[in-house]
Amino acid sequence: MIFKYYSILMLAFYLTGTTLFAQGKVRVETSFEPTTITLSNTSTYKIIIHGSQQAPGGSVPPVDGLNFSSPPRTLRSASFVNGVPSVRFELTFTVTPQKTGTFTVPAWEVRVENETFNVPSAQLQVLPPNQKDKLRQAEQRQQQEDLRQAAFMEFSSPRPFLFKGETVEAQVSLYLWDRLPVTRIDQVPFKNVDSVSVTELGQPTEQRNVKRFNKTYSVYSWVFGLTGAIVGTHKIQFESSIRVRVRNNRNSPFNNPFFNDPFFGFGREEGLQVLSNSLNLEIKPLPQANRPDFFQGAIGNLKIQTSPDKDHVTVGDPIRLTCSISGSGNFGAMPAPVLSLGKDFKSGPPAFSFDGNEKTKQQGAQIFEYIVTPLKAGILEIPPVSFSYFNPELEEYYSIRSESHQIRVDPGEEWVQPAVNSSLDATKQTSPLHTQDLFQTESDPGDWEPTLALSEPRYSYWFWLFQVFSFILAISIGLLRLKKSSSSTNLLKQKEKLLAQKTRDSLKHKDVAGFYRNLSKGIKLRVGIACHYSNTQALSSSEVIHLLQSSSLSQEIVQEVIQVLKQCDEQEYAGSTSGKEDLEVIFQRTQSLMKKIK
Amino acid sequence: MKKHYLILFIFFLPSWFCMGDSKEQMFYDAVRTEASGDLQEALKIYSNLSSHMHSAPLHANIANLYYKLSDYPLSVLHFRKALLLNPQNREYKSSLSLALDKCGISSDQRADTNLSFSIEFYPYLHFLLSALIWSGIITFIWFFRFPLKGKSFYLIICAWVTSVILLYRYYDQCKDLLSTLKHEGIAYHPTELEGNQTNEVSLRVFAGNGSTSNTAVPAGTSLFLDLGSDDEPRTHSSPNGEKWFLVRSFSGANKGWVREDEFIKIIN
């Protein structure tokens, strides 16, 4: 137990000693290790700060021809040297030379514990590569070349340029060296730019024993439709990734596991990125000259054909009109031709289908199926369908049209509304009241309703939200009005009190003119409150009297008020003098009168 | 948790849009199938669609197909549904009359199908009435102060009260009409007719198959559920699990019990 306490005490002493006593004089050293290297090797630039363990501040000055790794490795250490505790902090940069020569890192300053210390200069000599380095570099290059040849892709387009919107059949092939132990193709090739669009790359075709670079390959090819999207010259490249099995070997000098084991033995799986060659493809805009009005973007070499499924129908019976556009072209982006059927027919939107090479959608036939309904009886003609396209090989626009079709349309069954009062008026039975053709099939679905059931508003969330909102709005407005009204009444009362006080003051100081003026103002204010007139102060006495006479106050009060107001006007403007007793009597009488004005 | 809901939403969003397109696609498929002459298949597609969504042209096309297949009572039913959604369509009205005629229903037995508004309008009418009442109350609170006076004030009040009364009367009429529609159904003969059997639906004296017929109405006739004192339809469940409704004709002259499968409601 005693030993344990002793050990803890010693450890505490050591730690305290290394941090407190070792914080002596700070000293900075620098060096390259090794000081001489060849161009293909690296050195380390080490900064040692003795006497402190705090991270320093500052930056290594840049040296032309040397690359310093960032961030540096750091090391804190503490030790006893001859019984004296010592601490230090090390910073280590990996230095990669760019050229041969002698390089000097000049002296620079570093901040430690809020003090600045000088870092001495250090020198590194870089020699040209020796024979061993050259051999190693050549081996590395060969390995990289082998690796590139072990798996690569080739991308080819039939033409060096495309028109915007044009679709051509392109191909990308993945070459895999037979000795490369590929476990699977991780990702089908994908393009690196958005300036072209490609159809979906499905299952590839496989070809074995293809010779290239004196090696035997298995080739996986994808054929797809390539469509130009953005005008300009674009560098197009495809990328893919494969999984290969490699042996675990950590001692590789090049850190390249594929060539450490020539037989690619069993071990872990590694992903390998494969790139194709870059192809410069120009996307040209379509010419504006001679462009037909109804050109909708079809590009290729195309034919049009239409055919109805029936040539003899009844009014309202639907006819299926198939419009087929065939040949080679951009079927993936081909819009449906617009039918101009006139007033004899109505038609709905077409159904689309494609019959041809689904991989590229460049060869085949695009079929548009319209439902056409005749609206009247007779021999009707489905007019020809017009279609325009741009031929990219001849670089010209073409307009083509299909044939017209004759359809015989019968009038159909007719309905005669039965006479309502047949027993009462037999003569009316002879002439039909109203005739109409049989119902015609609707080709447009109209507006959809989720249910036919009646939606009761009282179960609707929105209905109750609206009720609550309206209720709250009404209550809020009511409270606002009430508050406003109450505040204006208070204001008037305060004003009235003030005037009464002023009148008393005038009485006290025998200011007769002021007394009558304030008295008059007080009466007018009281009349204003009683008659719901907001600004009686602005009225003359005669106008106030007129207001009083039109009010519901008794005639006696009105007469009394008129008398007081008259007296006030006379005293205020005529300046006749009165005794203190008279004024007091008038004041008391006016007060009792004002109480009566409600 | 919120993240999970977001993932679910993102997952199901495309399927929502797909559904939106699929109903149109199904409709066009059915039109094309009908055009190719396969009426049964077209009817199957339309019926499948109508179990999820409704539109006037959809029900009209179904009615037309039933008409072509000589199933006139179901044609009547679907023309009625189409007219609920588009009451002003003259073509549907005339076709319904034709189907009723084929069912052998005389004009005095026919229910009134002239709706002055679409059923979709009813909730909006409710909201409109509510908005009118509240707007009057709020205006009154905002603009008028006590004591009430002035000719214009009384004129505005009168105008408001009159418009509320008129709108309420219209709303009440619509409500009555919709309440009637809610309990209306079409008489239907669920089994295949044999020999000289007439296409009539029996209105029985008692709720049972063995009961004698009180009267019979042609299939396709509009029947109305008889309501009890609690405003609920009068029904009966027999020991073998069959459900029966007490119904009456439009004129009220014919009344009796029908099985659940002999009465197809217009509004579910």
Structure description:
The complex is a heterodimer of chains A (598) and B (268). Chain A is of the alpha+beta class. Chain A has 7 helices and 33 strands. Chain A has 4 domains: 2-127, Sandwich (Immunoglobulin-like), CATH 2.60.40; 136-283, Immunoglobulin-like (Sandwich), CATH 2.60.40; 286-410, Immunoglobulin-like (Sandwich); 488-596. In chain A, strands 1, 3, 4, 5 and 6 form a 5-stranded antiparallel β-sheet that branches. In chain A, helix 5 runs antiparallel to helix 6 and helix 6 (555-574) packs antiparallel against helix 7. Chain B has 7 helices and 8 strands; from the N terminus they run αααααααββββββββ. Chain B has 3 domains: 2-109, Alpha Horseshoe (Serine Threonine Protein Phosphatase 5, Tetratricopeptide repeat); 122-182; 184-265, SH3 type barrels (Roll). Helices cover 53% and strands 14% of the residues of chain B. Chain B has 268 residues and is of the alpha+beta class. Chain B has helices spanning 2-35, 39-50, 56-68, 72-85, 90-103, 121-143, 151-182, and strands at 184-187, 200-204, 213-218, 222-225, 235-237, 243-249, 255-259, 263-265. In chain B, helix 4 (72-85) runs antiparallel to helix 5 (90-103). Residues 15-19 of chain B have low confidence and may be disordered. The interface between A and B is large, with 47 and 54 residues.
| Global geometry of chain A | flat
- Would you count the extended β strands of chain A for me? 33
Q: Which percent range fits the helix content of chain B?
A: 40-55%
Main sheet overview of chain A = 5 strands, antiparallel
Distance between the termini of chain A: 102 Å
